[in-house]
Amino acid sequence: MSFFLTIPALLASEGGLGLNLDLFETNIINLAIVIAALVWFLPKVLGGILESRRAAILSDLQDAEQRLQDTTAALASARKDLAEAQKKAELIRSDAKARADALRLESERRTVEEMARLKHGAVADLQSEARRVSEQLRLEAARRAVDKALASLPGKLDAEAQARFIDQSINSLGQA
Amino acid sequence: MVPLPFFLPFAELEVGQHLYWQVGGYQIHGQVFLSSWLVIGALLALVVAGTRKLERDPRGVQNLLEFIWGYLRDLSREQIGEKAYRDWLPFIGTLFLFIFVSNWGGALVPWKLIHLPSGELGAPTADINTTIALALLVSLAYFYAGLSRKGFRYFEYYVEPTPIMLPFKIVEDFTKPLSLSFRLFGNILADELVVAVLAFLVPLIVPLPAMFLGLFTSAIQALIFATLAAYYIGEAVHEEHH
User: Cβ atoms within 10 A of the Cβ of B35, count?
Assistant: First the structure.
């Protein structure tokens, strides 16, 4: 604290502060030349460096801003594409669902039809088989009857019976 | 040494004269404090002016400050390494800016216009006390950096790669601040003296080359001091990969 208090006192007590305007003793002419040279020279060098630095920073900023803008635009268009794609996907899905439903109904219908047809065919087969079997049975019965008749025929058939039979046949022919 | 021609009517050269202030039990060099405050004030004003209204489009002082910041960041990142440079960038940057503005202020501002009762204003870095203070700060900084980052493993650094290095590394801790402070002090004082002596002998034109050379070496010295400080800190925080 005492340090700060003493400073003004020190400056005052020493005395003898003043200006020295001696041209040569102060070396003022040479200093003026040096300072003039620096003032002329420094802005060129340093100013050039600083200006190019500023230009680089500005162009970097502009680049970054441009990229931001581009990216924002790209993002927006990508979002739009996404929305469109989603809409399309939704459309395709609903379409596919509709088609799947249609296909399912169609195939159900076809299956039912097929099953009906098969059932029908089976019944028809059964009937035709039964008909075929009964036909065969009938033929077999007829053949057996003929065989039996042929077996019993030689014993019964004599001249008289033959004549009677022929007459009967002639009669029936005549009647027809 | 050839005696200076004191009979010439227009100039007088004085070395080792100081404006002494008595603070407590100490005698301090008042002219160094005055010029240091001016340098610090100028730097603060520049930084405040440059950062008060930050814009996306870097213009004028803001652009200059950003450029300097980028330069210092590259310097400290290169010397200290990616991991720790962020902690030390403010320190390195402060060192560089203070030394640089001190040097250039000492060489460019017509200090001699202001007449002091004793001694004369000039670059604060032309006084050995300033440079020793800065160099000791660097020593403290690299010890602190090493100890805070590695704990007592920091002292492994003294016996690497072989324990034979131990005395040399210990001596190095003393030579580092010594060389830092003497290099800066010597360069700046020598530059001021050369210009003063030349101006004293031939007042016009002849000191100009020395003055421009002085500007150049002043900038280089600021860079060297900051780079070495960063290098010492980097050495202290460096992790050996076994």
Answer: 26
